[in-house]
Specification:
The chain is of the alpha+beta class and about 350 residues long. It has eleven helices and ten strands. The chain has two domains: about 90 residues; about 230 residues, 2-Layer Sandwich (BirA Bifunctional Protein, domain 2). Bound molecules: phenylalanine.
Length: about 350
Amino acid sequence: MSNPISLIETEARAVIGAAADLAALDAARVALLGKSGEVTALLKTLGGMDSEARKSFGAAVNALKSSLTEALEQRRAVLEASALETRLAAEFVDVSLPGRVEARGSIHPISRTIEELTALFGAMGFGVKDGPDIEEDWYNFGALNIPAHHPARAMMDTFYLKAAGRNKPMVLRTHTSPLQIRTMLEQKPPIRVIVPGRTYRSDHDATHSPMFHQCEGLVIDRDITLAHLKGCLVDFLRAYFEIPDLKARFRASYFPFTEPSMEIDIAWDRKTGAIGGGNDWLEILGAGMVHPNVLANCGLDPREFQGFAFGMGIERITMLKHGIADLRNFYESDLRWLAHYGTSPLAPVTLHEGDPA
Ligand code: PHE
């Protein structure tokens, strides 16, 4: 008769080795070592044996039990490792795959125009400055030769701010002109700066927004004349609108902080909307020679230093260049509009190359 223990061991090892997954292995464990398992049944027979037989048989069954337990553990380790392999293979992420093309962002037309202004005036030697949106009344008005109660204040619908915790009256700046003052107080001539930035007026319709953008310009030196103002702005307008022979007109006007003051118009055709020719004129920006009082307010001697300043609406020149009809679209964050009028973030500003002629 063959030894039942070695027979059981051979068969049990075969079953354990054949278990294809953890569930099959667990079933084998129960069949061998479980409550009514084969090895457990052998242990139960010990009770009916005499002590000699029990001793040798018991030792053999216990050896079988621990050998099978070990075999089960080894097989479990193998199956677990291969289960992990399978999972890793199934969940593999190929980081070298090219990305999916999702909707691309674009540069907002206002930002784009600011980049163009920076490039164009940069090529003419202008630096860029900025300053606070919440401005002291004195920088926004007083220092610019607009005293309190002066009728010129009525030209701008100002947001006056409660001077909480401050002893100076504050406003949301109504134009970028306060940066004329800040610049002249901060740096000595020669000065050549532009100031693109946000401005605020209490006004709202298809052509006015309570928040809008302006770009200021300021040039101060010893021998600056109206001829420099005209040359600089005509060059700028031709490069910005990309029309080398764009006609411009300088029309007398009034600003408290410039003398003489003027508004600059460009030619256009009212019927077709085409810019550059035609018999109609379109107002584009305000400018003038910096008023002697403004120079003096900044500690500059008007007999020694002169200069010019200009200011334009960024929305306005952007609408004209790109044929945008309604100002409100700029602030609505409509992705369709932005995709149409926005610029690729990778498109370089080439306008500073200027007129090739
Ligand atoms: N600050 C003026 C405005 O907002 C524009 C301007 C700037 C005019 C500089 C002359 C000189 O209307």
